């Protein structure tokens, strides 16, 4: 059973009965603890903002590259694509020349996002799609779960089946593919299970998984309930 990472909100409650002099000391300690907790909560956001891609942004000249440098989500995906390429390239029996040719074709596809109406959305799909393809095509990548997981297949009765690849990090994302379409949704807080969602000009996308089941909603379609296909 697939179990995605679920963010946990920790809440601490301090109850202290003190003498007047001790009470002031306890209040100071509590204030310091609250400050530390606030800093810890802000830290991931600061780290995400400082995320850098695998290439030198100071030397970026292509529009697609500058867009990656400006978006922590894209920088995170760029690092994972590069990591998977390195992992695959070091595996025994891999045709490295063919791998490099495929990478060149993919980079050209990435760069064409500069001509689209929404370069960020295009790049999210191109990067996440490449992660999914590399994991599906190479066993050494599929068995590695350091950052990304999947693709995982879901059977959706009466509708197109889904394939989902999860990318964990400062901004955890899921790449959902169905029929000839795809979308990248980002993880959101939920009371149970793991929920991923995004709002785009065409409407809202939501992927919510609980145990072996998931619910998927895309613009212009009804919610689908799907079951994980066991390997």
UniProtKB/TrEMBL annotation:
Domain of life: Bacteria
Every C-type lysozyme inhibitor domain range: 154-222
PROSITE patterns membership: PROKAR_LIPOPROTEIN (PS51257)
Gene3D superfamilies: 2.40.128.200
SUPFAM superfamilies: YdhA-like
Keywords: Lipoprotein, Membrane, Palmitate, Signal
Family matches, as InterPro entries: Lysozyme_Inhibitor_LprI, MliC, MliC_sf
Residues in the signal sequence: 1-26
Mitochondrion is among the record's keywords: no
A single GO cellular-component term on record: extracellular region
PANTHER family linked to this entry: LIPOPROTEIN LPRI
Protein name: C-type lysozyme inhibitor domain-containing protein
Organism expressing this protein natively: Asticcacaulis benevestitus DSM 16100 = ATCC BAA-896
Lineage: Bacteria, Pseudomonadati, Pseudomonadota, Alphaproteobacteria, Caulobacterales
